[in-house]
Amino acid sequence: MKLFDVYPLFDVNIVKGKGCKVWDDKGNEYLDLYGGHAVISIGHCHPHYIDKVSSQLNNLGFYSNSVINGLQQELAVRLGRISGCDDYQLFLINSGAEANENALKLASFTNGRTRVLSAEKAFHGRTSLAVEATANPNIIAPINANGHVTYLPLNDLEAWRKELAKGDVCACIIECIQGVGGIRMVTEEFATGLAQACKDYGTVLICDEIQCGYGRSGKFFAHQWLGIRPDIITVAKGIANGFPMGAVLISPDFAPKYGQLGTTFGGNHLACAAALAVIDVMENENLVENARQTGTYLMERLKELQQTGHHITDIRGRGLMIGIELDIPHKPIRERLVYNQRMFTGCSGTNLLRLLPPLCFTREMADEFIVKLSQELKH
Question: Considering the entire predicted model, what is its pTM?
Fold first, then answer.
């Protein structure tokens, strides 16, 4: 058997990680500004994380959701406290796409509607309704194209209000900072106006915080920069630092019913131990504030580099979620950063480098990146 070939790969085999560094099987060291696609929140192989996950595995890795799991209850309390969402309810699953599926399902259970509003360039996952809410026809199979979703321009409040006024919209789902869409920022005016319009028309507002949440923006959730309170918040990626996990944070306005949602693996003991370890490290090492301060510094350095005139046309983002728009394709730049400079970055579209490093990223690392990016942009 061979692998189903759907991923374009760098010719690099990463076998080890520590903090913001990774190593390949030849012993080469790389600076990781990609974080496994924003998954590595507290750094690779953090000793506290290893200890907590190992200890839990020595006790119990898994049992079903038919019994009390005290780790789930502890995680709900801790996550509520660190995020400022104490009064929300927590449903645990395995991935970001699954989080969005359950969020949209819950919205439809609540108001009985079937239409969803999503933003142009949005990415919400690759499963049934999540992929339909993703504005990329190349990944929507015919079986998923069921006409539930209307795509609208981000930040065009009047366009969203016009659709909401039809009275048939189940949910609006937005990323407050679009990731795959190119680090596109939701404005405060749009966010507050949309939240009010959703209330006016009985529509559920879902904030997809899978990539932009969990401290990455310099606040725990990106929507907290915008002064809104979503009905439902979805998270994954950084929640367990690489252990497969996702979650739905559900406002107290929703009443749960037995059997309404369910999962086999979601919220298992090992996943909860990993997620609790992440919160420990985020609190003890002040990583959300570090993301804000280091991200601000890195964006300032990038804007200085932009003034040199070498291919950078725009810098945007918040915290450690940064987009570098170029007037040339990103592909050769990314390849040279990997093979010449030993640095991993992300990308979006044709011309955008995307930076998603672990939240323990430092100013010294930012300076190192600026030097090496500058070298490659001069080619």
Answer: 0.98
Q: Which amino acid is at 56?
A: Q
The class (CATH top level) of 47-284 is alpha beta
Residue type, 215: G
Query: May I ask the CATH class of domain 287-354?
Result: alpha beta
Query: Which stretch of DSSP H or E encloses residue 215?
Result: none
**Sheet (strand 89-93) strand order:** 89-93, 246-250, 232-235, 204-208, 169-174, 115-119, 149-152
Give residue 177's identity as a one-letter amino acid code: I
User: pLDDT by residue (tens digit) across 39-81?
Assistant: 999 999 999 999 999 999 999 999 999 999 999 999 999 999 9
Which H or E run includes 373? Answer: helix 363-377
User: Long-range contacts: 152-156, Cβ < 8 Å, 24+?
Assistant: 152/117, 152/118, 152/119, 152/120, 153/119, 153/120, 154/119, 154/120, 154/121, 154/178, 154/181, 154/184, 154/186, 154/190, 155/186, 155/187, 155/189, 155/190, 156/190
